[in-house]
Design brief:
Layout lengths: L1 H19 L5 E4 L5 H16 L7 H17 L7 E5 L2 E5 L1 H19 L1 H22 L3 E4 L2 H8 L6 H11 L2 H6 L4
Antiparallel strand pairs: 1-4, 2-3
Helix pairs in contact: 1-3, 2-5, 3-4, 3-5
């Protein structure tokens, strides 16, 4: 259950981030590279980042710990406590109060783990692995101009047109020289 919670929460965050992501400010390039090699390196380095083991990071451990705490809060949650009894059975229950208490405890656990900060940190870890892969293959980072970013905003993510446009920038020696990222 803990794993499913973390995966679900991670999926929601990624979907939200992907839907609202602006055009990137930077990209990677390498002079003299073919489109086929550019795409292959992009895929392989992207997968390197994607498959980076984050299970030993403090962020992942914090999510596991929070998930265990959430499991502990809900143990026995379906059985309301009785406040008293009369001759025919329970006098009343405080199920509504108990549910509110569980919700408060759960929110407190989620707030304390700081999921937004943790996901940003995990994202940086994954991106760093992809960056190191690209650097090891001779790529360098370059900054996109406002006009280039504007063009990218109008090209569908994942489309051949977008890939071709990025490749045209990434393989252009003048772009790599004049727009080199610090």
């Amino acid at each position: 259950m803990r794993y499913l919670f973390a995966v679900s929460l991670f999926g929601i965050l990624l979907a939200t981030s992907a839907a609202s992501a602006p055009a990137p400010k930077e990209s990677w390039g390498k002079g003299g590279i073919t489109l086929a090699q550019y795409r292959q390196d992009s895929l392989e380095c992207g997968l390197k980042g994607y498959y980076t083991d984050i299970s030993k990071t403090d962020d992942a451990k914090a999510f596991v710990n929070a998930s265990k705490q959430l499991d502990a809060v809900t143990t026995g949650a379906s059985t309301p406590m009785t406040l008293g009894s009369n001759g025919t059975g329970p006098d009343t229950t405080n199920a509504l109060d108990q549910m509110a208490q569980y919700a408060d405890e759960q929110q407190h656990i989620v707030d304390n783990v700081r999921p937004d900060e943790r996901f940003k940190s995990i994202k940086k870890t994954l991106e760093s692995a992809a960056d190191h892969c690209l650097i090891s293959r001779g790529y360098s980072k370059f900054e996109l101009t406002d006009d280039q970013r504007h063009t990218l905003k109008h090209l569908k993510a994942g489309s051949d047109q977008r890939r071709q446009y990025l490749y045209s920038l990434a393989s252009n020696p003048a772009v790599l020289r004049n727009q080199r990222a610090p």
